[in-house]
Specification:
about 725 residues, disordered C terminus, six-stranded parallel beta sheet, binds adenosine-5'-diphosphate, seven-stranded parallel beta sheet, binds magnesium ion, about 20% strand, Rossmann fold, globular, alpha/beta
Length: about 725
């Protein structure tokens, strides 16, 4: 009795099982069946040896007659001349530098050979054709017609496991497989016209047509999508079952005082999101919301108003930032916005006032003790900080709300750890400026309700973006000239480098050292090299300072403060300035070796300029050629400021693994088949089904097979994946 858990050893014997285990990490029948063909060879294109036309790409099926090895002229290597026959005619195949093929292509072997028809000294030939060995035992005696019409699965094979060996193992597995319990409920399958699991395996491994493949793959994609969405639906449900303290602002309280003093009217979006958050906060279950909004869309005000509502009701609110630079900047801007309302106990402080405290890893022992005391006795209403806040010795008097800025750097686990800091689970608001396509949001952030701020507050002049080819001297000169001009009129500038440089590992970002074709390229510009070069050259006479992640936090903070105060003209920085840094007087940014950055990252960086009333400039310098994909990417960034459009582009250019963070987890990809863009509709449908399933049967008691799959997937790969969410 063979099921998905049967060890391959039982089915195939020790030798084959070892081969599959070592070469492909496949150990059970289920692993083997989930090792899907990479593509399919169309036997339909089979061409008769009599009909070969020059220049056409063909597949021929033939038997090896003779193999000769010949030295190549002027080289120590050899070439292989393989004569194949269909029984009547023969054809010569020429393989350069592939003498290893001698092992496979012994006389008598039958195989498919695919390639372009060529002519050499009047004889037709195929040069370096693709070879698909046909297993004589299995494929040898099939009847011609059926054989020609079927698709040959081509597996991602390992060196020692050729594709046809895999095909044979799969055939054995499918032939002896008992009907397996199906994780997809029958009624769901009927609604979406999906084949049963066993059938789906047959369709993808032994298809008769492209339609079979599509139907089988769709069904298997559903498994992935549904499992993920069920996991997320369960999480949401769990959150809903928690009890917390409702937080409602007092009509004459801190929030009211703040609103009364606001120097600008809130945008429509800010009002709407604010109302949604206020409604969430007033409920006795914890809020669990994601706020998405372009850089500069005014999320901070929205966050602050939510925090003030909580303080009004006697609680405390935390604002968590991914870096110390950003945390201190946040605490500064909260204090600025609050003015007297942040000066409790100080001269000139308002009666209603509270206090903003900053907790980072670089606090001295004494300052830390005092800060923690203020947090513990509740006198600090607003607490801003980094991961350091996750430390257990941080005790809150009454933590009511956690706001996480720049979500993508915080995992679910960290969120949970923070929530455990309150007496009752606090409300949670997650903010991100990284535009996220809807499906990604639904998948990666699927356990959060989603709000968006779409319009930018008025009065922004916007940013003009240009691609600057490094090879054209006059353009590069104009780039530095633009920076000097802006500084001359009292504005400030950023120069962004992909790397820090100097000794030690770069830790501010991961920027590949390989070109798009995988070849190493020249090292990207570094802050440590550019700094002296610019100070002595293009930016001579200007006040220039470096900013990057290897500076001591206090030093970074000092640099940011002087930049914000206008005491520095130009920052030579890494992507530490990517998130949230807000200096409205900065009007120009030059990104060096801009091709080293992703689309979203560039968009994010660019958001640092044009934040005030003066127009901003973003100059993307690159050494790549104009026909390189990287150039296209940069032109696309220059052409639009629509974050959502760029997010789609970004996603289309990256592998999903990277988007989901699986690449960093080092584990296997949890999403094998789903492509977040292509499968948008499917993911949407799966979400609806998941909500229905979990609503009717939260523990999936009536769906043991689905529950089993869920546990397996979650234990395994998606644990890491969800963490990254
Ligand atoms: P985000 O955090 O979304 O990038 P911020 O909250 O930092 O954006 O806002 C960017 C700038 O816009 C800040 O200087 C802020 O004071 C200002 N701002 C926010 N809301 C408005 C508004 N409704 N009208 C005018 N300016 C606003
Ligand atoms: Mg912000």
């Amino acid at each position: 009795m063979v099921d998905l858990d049967t060890p391959l050893k039982t089915l195939l014997g020790a030798r084959a099982a070892t081969l599959l285990a070592d070469g492909l990490e496949l150990s059970a029948v289920g692993d083997l069946l989930n090792h899907l063909p990479r593509r399919y060879h169309e036997r339909g294109e089979l061409t008769d040896l009599a009909d070969l036309t020059m220049g056409e790409t063909v597949t021929v099926q033939a038997r090896v007659e003779k193999v000769e090895r010949r030295p190549m002229r002027g080289s120590r290597r050899s070439m292989l001349l393989v004569t194949v026959t269909d029984g009547r005619l023969s054809l010569v195949l020429t393989f350069f530098n592939q003498t290893w093929r001698e092992r496979d292509l012994r006389p008598g072997t039958t195989a498919l050979f695919a390639g372009k028809v060529d002519e050499y000294r009047g004889r037709r030939q195929l040069v370096n054709p693709e070879v698909q060995l046909l297993d004589p035992e299995v494929d040898g005696d099939t009847d011609g017609e059926a054989f020609a019409n079927a698709l040959v699965p081509i597996y991602p094979a390992a060196a020692k496991v050729p594709s046809w060996t895999l095909a044979r193992c799969v055939r054995l597995a499918l032939d002896s497989l008992e009907p397996v319990p199906d994780p997809l409920p029958e009624e769901l399958r009927r609604r979406h016209r999906l084949p049963a699991l066993t059938e789906a395996y047959r369709l993808v491994h032994q298809p008769d047509s492209r339609a079979d493949v599509a139907s089988g793959r769709k069904r298997l994609s559903w498994d992935e999508a549904l499992v993920l969405q069920v996991a997320l639906a369960q999480r949401r449900r769990q959150t809903e079952s928690l009890a917390t303290t409702p937080r409602v602002a007092r009509p004459d309280g801190l929030l009211a005082a703040f609103d009364a003093g606001l120097p600008f009217p809130l945008t429509k979006g800010q009002r709407e999101v604010g109302a949604a958050i206020a409604a969430d906060l007033a409920r006795p279950v914890p809020m669990h919301r994601l706020l998405q909004g372009e850089v500069g869309s005014g999320k901070t005000v929205v966050a602050l108003r939510a925090m003030l509502a909580v303080v009004d009701s006697g609680g405390q609110a935390v604002l968590l930032a991914p870096t110390e630079t950003l945390a201190s900047q946040h605490s500064r801007s909260l204090r600025d916005m609050l003015g007297n309302l942040a000066r409790a106990g100080e001269l000139g402080g308002d009666d209603q006032a509270t206090r903003v405290t900053l907790v980072t890893g670089s606090l001295g022992a004494r300052a830390r003790r005092e800060t923690l005391a203020a947090i513990a006795d509740g006198s600090a209403g607003l607490v801003v900080g980094t991961h350091a806040l996750l430390h257990e010795d941080v005790v809150f008097a009454d933590l009511g709300l956690i706001i996480v800025d720049e979500q993508h750097r915080f995992g679910v686990e960290q969120r949970d750890a923070l929530r455990a800091r309150g007496r009752r689970p606090p409300h949670l608001l997650v903010m991100t400026a990284t535009p996220i396509p809807r499906t990604v949001a639904m998948t990666v952030f699927g356990d959060l309700e989603i709000s968006e701020l779409t319009e930018l507050p008025g009065g922004r002049a916007g940013v003009s973006t240009y691609v600057v080819p490094a090879a054209v001297r006059s353009w590069t000169d104009r780039m530095w000239g633009r920076i000097r001009d802006e500084v001359a009129t009292g504005r400030q500038a950023y120069v962004v480098c992909p790397r820090i440089g100097g000794a030690g590992a770069d830790d501010d970002q991961v920027v590949g050292q390989d070109g798009e074709d995988g070849r190493p390229v020249r090292p990207a510009a570094t802050v440590t090299e550019m700094l002296p070069q610019l100070v002595d050259g293009e930016l001579a006479g200007l006040r220039v300072e470096p900013l990057h992640g290897r500076l001591a936090p206090a030093q970074r903070e000092a640099v940011m403060t002087s930049f914000a105060d206008g005491e520095i003209d130009v920052l030579i920085a890494t992507t530490v300035i990517e998130v949230g840094v807000n200096v409205p007087n900065a009007t120009v940014m030059a990104v060096l070796d801009a091709d080293r950055f992703g689309v979203s990252q560039l968009h994010q960086l660019r958001g640092r300029v044009g934040r005030g009333s003066a127009p901003g400039w973003c100059l993307l310098q690159t050494a790549v050629e104009q026909d390189a994909p990287a150039w296209q990417r940069l032109t696309a960034v220059a052409a639009t400021s629509d974050g959502a459009e760029l997010a789609r582009l970004d996603l289309a250019q990256r592998r999903e693994g990277d988007v989901l963070g699986a690449a960093q987890s080092g584990g296997r990809r949890s999403l094998k088949l789903l492509a977040l863009l292509r499968d948008e509709e499917l993911i949407r449908e799966a979400r609806v089904e998941a909500v229905r399933l979990v609503g009717d049967d939260p523990e999936l008691a009536g769906h043991p097979a689905l529950r089993r799959l869920l546990t397996a997937v979650l234990d395994d790969e998606s644990a890491a994946f969800l963490e990254k969410g």
